[in-house]
């Protein structure tokens, strides 16, 4: 076992309720501190499901999934939620912004729910709000937008708010589920510059799902899910 594994799945099996076959069946997957992982594979092969298992949103039917050495299955649902917000920034496929909160307050949510994220967002002496503003600016979202409700944003703007929220307070793990799907080429490159660089500077582990092979070269490690997933191997693309 790797001492440095931040995320580790061993003997992991998961089937969706009612499914006749498992969706995920992985012998061993270890992801280490600071790795930037590009997770890809055909639509429906289980990429989002695997992300949810790594982040403790879903719990394995069999096997162990650990974050920083702790098994998600040992925790209650509420304890998993607390641990996730403390250690994981998650950019969901549907963003999961709170629609009536402002952009700024959406970005600050992890700091509201986690003292650890709040302390890390304040670590340079400035209030967490200053880090939220800096992240929004780096994501190309100017101050004129910060007090707008999230529901008033375009899809591409929402993606960038979700990324700023994932990065605030330097979590050990950043998980991104197709975060560039609504961005044009310039925005996509700028978005990736910020996300990949912020993770490298903070030594955050980045697990990034995308179909877009044009961006694969930015990531140090490529994982083709059907190759490691016995459940998905051989399925049609
Ligand atoms: N909530 C759910 N309930 C039941 N089955 C689900 C659920 N979510 C996903 N599945 C099934 O699990 C399989 C894997 O889905 P998943 O979303 O993980 O794939 P994916 O590789 O992320 O796909 P895509 O690239 O299209 O986003 C699919 O067959 C899907 O129908």
Automatic annotation (TrEMBL):
Q: Check the record and name the PROSITE patterns matching this protein.
A: ABC_TRANSPORTER_2 (PS50893)
The record's section on Gene3D superfamilies has: P-loop containing nucleotide triphosphate hydrolases
Pfam families hit by this protein: ABC_tran
A GO molecular function assigned to this protein is: ATP binding
The segment(s) forming the ABC transporter domain are 7-236
The domain of life for this entry's organism is Bacteria
Q: Which UniProt keywords apply?
A: ATP-binding, Cell membrane, Membrane, Nucleotide-binding, Transport
User: InterPro entries from the xrefs?
Assistant: AAA+_ATPase (IPR003593), ABC_transporter-like_ATP-bd (IPR003439), ABC_transpr_LolD-like (IPR015854), MacB-like_ATP-bd (IPR017911), P-loop_NTPase (IPR027417)
The protein in question is named ABC transporter ATP-binding protein
Organism equals Variovorax defluvii
